[in-house]
Amino acid sequence: MNTITTFIEKNPAITIVIAFQLFRFCLLPSMGLMPQDAYYHFYGENLSLSYFDHPGMIGYMLRMFTITFGKYVFVVKLANFVVTTLTILSFYKLSTLFLSKDKVLKSLLLLISTLFISILSFNSTPDVPLMLFWTLSVLFLYRAIFENKKAYWIYAGITMGLAFDSKYTALLLQFGLIAFILFSNKKRKLLFSPWFWASLVISALITFPVWWWNYQHDFASFLFQSSERTSSMSGFKIHPKFFFGALGHQLFLLLPILFSIFLVFTFKYVKRALIKFKLPSTKTLFLLAFFIPTFLGFMILTPFYWVKLNWLMPSYVTGIILASMFITRKLLKIQLIISVVLHFLVALQVVFYFVPVKSDDTWVGWEELALETQKIQNKYPDSFVFSDDKYKTSAVLNFYMNDKVYAQNIIGKHALHFDYLGDDLSTLNGKNAIFIDSDTRFKNDNKKGEINPLLNNYFSNVTELEPIIIEKNGKKLRKFWVFYCKEYNANP
User: Fold this and answer.
1) pTM here?
2) What does the alpha-carbon distance between residue 430 and residue 404 come to, in Å, rounded to a whole number?
């Protein structure tokens, strides 16, 4: 006990960091399965070179953990927690290359206090491995460029490739590297270095599986992530709600103090460059090269397009290091107080679920849904189960149930990666099915009272059954409509 007390007294900042991570770890068992957890676990159970909506790194990561420790919700959560902890350690190592000891601790406290670290620790998304490989890439590039360690060009090429194999936005790593070299008078000669080009070539080779999968599938994933998204920006109409929505998300993820500092130094450096034509020191320019394109680039898009809350996350790595150069002890203290209060409220919500989430993006009720669905399937033997909400209900039921659960491609709708499993749906012809439909705006216990016309197209007869009502602590929280569908026809 004396040893622990002495450590806390001598290392208050490190103690706070450890306390935050212990808090997150202790909260893991209370976190139920999220649809995203189930969907990316589904990736891992259906191994492929890549996938329709994302590259496969998150699926490989979850597959490795569940093979090692078993197929449990806690293991899925543990995978995210462990990888995010590795990201924190990598960030700490990176920050020591730019900051004094006091400011390193500031940067670590800023990072650990954010809600985005909590989200990455609890919820499976491609951003979990992306953030690790992004941080390692910046670390290795620093070693290669500023310490002239040739081998680190190779390491950086590997991690940049693995970052792309996690999420397509990792291309901004190569963009940032090239931009830094072009704008840096002292490092521009690296354009003629074979090591620089070798790093880029290696990163491209590491991404080959993603390109090959896309080539085999008519570039479906690239088209989904590019042309379909850019088409929604046609006309560049201004949408204030998009801008304020993105602003709210960033305030939530970073907390107001840190986000405000991001805005202040971004304005400061951009103004200095555009008006005074003056660039910062080489090391600061290096940090900005991996911050400005992602942070400012996506923020500029927010008035015209719905920028998702996680798209800016990679910019936080070097952004927090820059922020620690500006933040005062008083502001840091306020940041930590706000963080502790919000994390306490999050913990209460996770454990007690005071505020029902009117969405399928929740951790409550999924296992109970699987048990009730299994009971219905037992009453109607030889029936397959499917749902129609892109991936969420189907992915979760696939996690919990032994029999395969299908998605909305059963009724002719596009179903993300469910379309690329190689299923021959005609083998289901003549079979009966149970259709599960989530009532996200749950208001009463009534049946839906109407049948999706598409069901009538693919089945000879559809009957609505009693809905599944999920309760917790005597309170009704979620509702799922249930339909019994007879004699499936894959080609109506």
Assistant:
1) 0.94
2) 17
